[in-house]
Amino acid sequence: MMIDVSHSDTPLKATFRIKLNGETVAIKTIGDAYRFITSLSTIEWMEFQSQHNDAKVALEAAAEDAMMSVQATNALRVLFVRAKLL
User: Fold this and answer.
1) Non-local CB neighbours of 66 within 8 Å, separated by 6+ positions
2) What percent of the chain has pLDDT over 90?
3) pTM of the predicted structure, to 2 decimals
4) pLDDT at 59 over 70
5) Kind plus residue range of the DSSP H or E element containing 83
6) DSSP H or E run through 1
7) Cβ distance 30 to 69 under 8 Å?
8) Burial class (CB in 10 A: 0-12, 13-18, 19+), 75
9) pLDDT above 70 (res 24)
10) CA torsion through residues 84, 23, 15, 66, sign
11) Is the distance from CB of 69 to CB of 11 less than 8 angstroms?
């Protein structure tokens, strides 16, 4: 059975607060993060494709196994720092 990653309420190991269009978005769960990184177009992530792919794969793994949430949090941090969102 496939888990819908975008609805995962598994908590990340950190809460990311990202300013987007003048509003602060809090990313607290695997689902929050997955929706955030998949809602922007592929073009917007193209410059950071490797980090984006790493984060997406890590989030999918964490949705299946909460023990992977540390790796997912770290992959998101790398992506967000590289994209200058943090």
Assistant:
1) 10
2) 81
3) 0.91
4) yes
5) none
6) none
7) yes
8) buried
9) yes
10) negative
11) yes
User: Residue holding tokens 């949705």?
Assistant: 63
In contact, 44 and 21? CB cutoff 8 Å: no
- Domains of the chain, by residue range, sit at 5-82
Strands 23-29, 11-20: parallel, antiparallel or unpaired by DSSP?
antiparallel
Extended strands (E) in the chain? 11-20, 23-29
| C-beta separation of 40 from 64 below 8 A | no
d(CA 81, CA 3): 28
Q: Does 1 have pLDDT greater than 60? A: no
- On whether the CB atoms of residues 10 and 71 are closer than 8 A, the answer is no
**Are 52 and 61 spatial neighbours (Cβ–Cβ below 8 Å)?**
no
Region of 14 on the Ramachandran plot (φ > 0 left; ψ -120 to 50 alpha; else beta): beta
The span from the CA of 13 to the CA of 22, in Å, is 25
